[in-house]
Amino acid sequence: MPYPELDVRPVAGALGAEVFGVDLGQPLDAGLIDAIRRAWLEHLVLFFRDQHLDADQYLAFARRIAEPVEYPMLKGLDGYPLIVPVVKLAHERVNFGGLWHSDTAYLDTPPIGATLLAREIPPVGGDTLFANMYLAYEALSDGMRRMLEGLRAVNSSAKADVTRTREDRLADSGAKLGPGTELASVHPVVRTHPETGRRLLYVNGGHTVRFDGMTEAESAPLLNYLFAHLTRPEFTCRLRWQVGTLALWDNRCTQHNPINDYHGHRRVMHRISLGAERPV
């Protein structure tokens, strides 16, 4: 799809595109925002380089895409509670959210999207992988799709693997939830994107613990198959960050995985969660 107002260049066959020639710190007219949203829906994740925005500019752009919402786990910046710092310090060995996941699927109304702005990056490493859940669903056999239709899955904030990735930040950034608090919600295994009408796979290794009405042991064989399937290389793209890179992804139809390969260096990102919507 052409975007006369934008220079949009796909980065991989599965998803992802870089957008050139736009300064997101400037006022953007409705036509340009519409073009950005159309490109976002088509490519699922957009990358904007050289966006050196202050907090007010960053929030102003986010609000043109969807109303920002607070992240339930960590406090935001002083004076800007909707901007959450995502940090790995040089001495730490674990990175926050360092596994394949869809953001906060344990909420009844997860965010429709998110944006991440690179403030400080390591000299090498720290890339992020993104995966296309439309393709993950469409590549399943007809029999598998029929079996998944109508199933619902329980998603939890307390799944062990993802909990381990949060320990450093919960210790020093002030968790917003009390110790031992668990958030959980039940969502369709196959959902329909409300804007595109496309079907997609909606389980993730970070938060999905079992099928509704089944035990974890009963659910594990099929869930583990789906977790491996949805990260097949042909469904993915890879972002190499630079200071000032801004990524905007559709949380409804993508998953992401920040790669933890930069021990001994700091990585500082600022994140804004966008919108809230019940999966159907």
Task: Tell me about this structure.
The protein is of the alpha+beta class and 280 residues long. The chain has a single domain (7-274), classed as Double-stranded beta-helix, CATH 3.60.130.10. The protein contains six helices and 16 strands. It has helices at residues 30-43, 55-65, 133-138, 142-148, 160-172, 216-229, and strands at residues 7-10, 17-20, 45-48, 68-69, 84-88, 113-120, 128-132, 152-156, 184-188, 190-192, 199-201, 208-211, 236-239, 246-250, 254-258, 267-274. Strands 1, 2, 3, 4, 5, 6, 14 and 16 form an eight-stranded mixed sheet that branches. The longest helix is centred in the N-terminal third of the chain and has 14 residues, at 30-43. It is globular. The model has no long low-confidence stretch (mean pLDDT 93).
